[in-house]
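thought: user wants a sequence for this fold. calling inverse folding tool.
action: design(structure=
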């Protein structure tokens, strides 16, 4: 039987050519969509122009949305020149509501040998660009410029970015200056106790910030007992003073509309332990303003869970007190806490906004116990 290899080869070539044309066509469509989106978003215009200045192309990991007025930079596959263009554009932004810089890849340590652009470009392939000292300091500087100039920024999330001491100082200075941020996340950036205490000195006088996420930040009981407790206590005093001022005017203050911290998320800080939450829970007994505290995988035992339950028996305005994923807590104690939380939430429509955090970073299910 004769086989026409030539016709098979031609057919294969035609299929390959068609496939290549489809890929080119799809690429062209996506480029046009990206360009069209950039024309509608101020950041997109600036970013496109800066990419032209540096003779690079906009990358798909720098995302911006007109609908949500947000900028998102996913840094795992970004090269140093990509970071330079994106961060230079970000530093000029004054109109975006939500800025998020996130890395999924875990890096053990900061590559401090690469502090300049040229050094970072020449770093070995196994050194991720976002782990170089040059990039993390540029992130901090760009975000600082946004914070001191914007009147629009509401949500700032810097997740899994290994900042050095200088970069953290720059960020904290920007947070201190800004008056518009309501949600701040440094989740999995491993800032440690020293930086956390410095941050808390700023947060205690920032009533505009309503929620803080310090999950996976390598915090110990020292951060909870000193810095975070100080934030809650000082804001509690200010709120009491505001209530007293209202009473002098024969008015009743509504604690649900007052400014100040409403949610504190500390998941995956395994060194906090029972010693770290004891004073925190004691303070929350008299606090009717904080609505949610997340303490998943924080090294708590039944002793810490009992302290949590005691707080909930007194404070019925606390909607979420999440001590799941603390493996040493018994199922009976966890069930008692969940039952009490259910009682706190029942028939309260205003508490439906307080959703529970995900069970671990890998779990895509998010539940609400309202």
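)
observation: tool returned 370 residues.
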């Amino acid at each position: 039987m004769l086989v026409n290899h030539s016709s098979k080869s031609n057919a294969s070539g035609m299929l390959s050519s068609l496939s290549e044309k489809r890929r080119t066509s799809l690429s062209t469509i996506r480029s046009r969509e990206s360009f069209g989106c950039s024309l509608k978003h101020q950041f997109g215009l600036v970013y496109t122009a800066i990419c032209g200045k540096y003779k690079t192309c906009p990358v798909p990991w720098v995302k911006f949305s007109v609908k949500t007025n947000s900028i998102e930079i996913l840094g795992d596959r970004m090269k140093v020149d990509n970071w330079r263009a994106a961060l230079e554009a970000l530093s000029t932004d004054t109109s975006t509501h939500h800025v998020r810089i996130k890395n999924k890849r875990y890096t053990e340590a900061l590559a401090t040998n690469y502090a300049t652009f040229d050094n970072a470009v020449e770093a070995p392939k196994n050194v991720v660009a976002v782990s170089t000292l040059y990039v993390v300091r540029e992130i901090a500087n760009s975000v600082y410029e946004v914070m001191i100039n914007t009147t629009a920024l509401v949500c700032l999330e810097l997740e899994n970015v290994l900042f050095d001491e200088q970069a953290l100082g720059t960020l904290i200075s920007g947070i201190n200056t800004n008056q518009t941020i309501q949600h701040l996340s440094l989740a999995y950036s491993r800032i440690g106790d020293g930086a956390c205490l410095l941050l808390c000195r700023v947060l205690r006088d920032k009533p505009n910030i309503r929620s803080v996420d310090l999950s996976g930040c390598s915090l110990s009981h020292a951060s909870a007992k000193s810095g975070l407790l100080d934030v809650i206590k000082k804001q509690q005093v200010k709120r009491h003073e505001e209530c007293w001022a209202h009473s002098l005017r024969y008015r009743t203050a509504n604690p649900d509309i007052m400014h100040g911290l409403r949610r504190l998320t500390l998941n995956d800080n395994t060194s906090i332990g029972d010693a770290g939450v004891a004073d925190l829970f004691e303070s929350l007994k008299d606090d009717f303003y904080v609505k949610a505290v997340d303490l998943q995988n924080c090294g708590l035992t039944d002793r810490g869970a009992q302290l949590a339950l005691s707080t909930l028996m007194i404070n019925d305005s606390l909607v979420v007190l999440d001590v799941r994923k603390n493996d040493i807590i018994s199922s009976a104690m966890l069930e008692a806490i969940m039952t009490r939380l259910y009682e706190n939430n029942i028939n309260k429509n205003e508490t439906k906004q307080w959703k529970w955090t995900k069970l671990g970073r890998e779990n895509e299910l998010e539940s609400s116990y309202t």
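thought: summarizing for user.
answer: Here is the designed sequence. Confidence is low (pLDDT under 50) at residues 24-38, 362-370.
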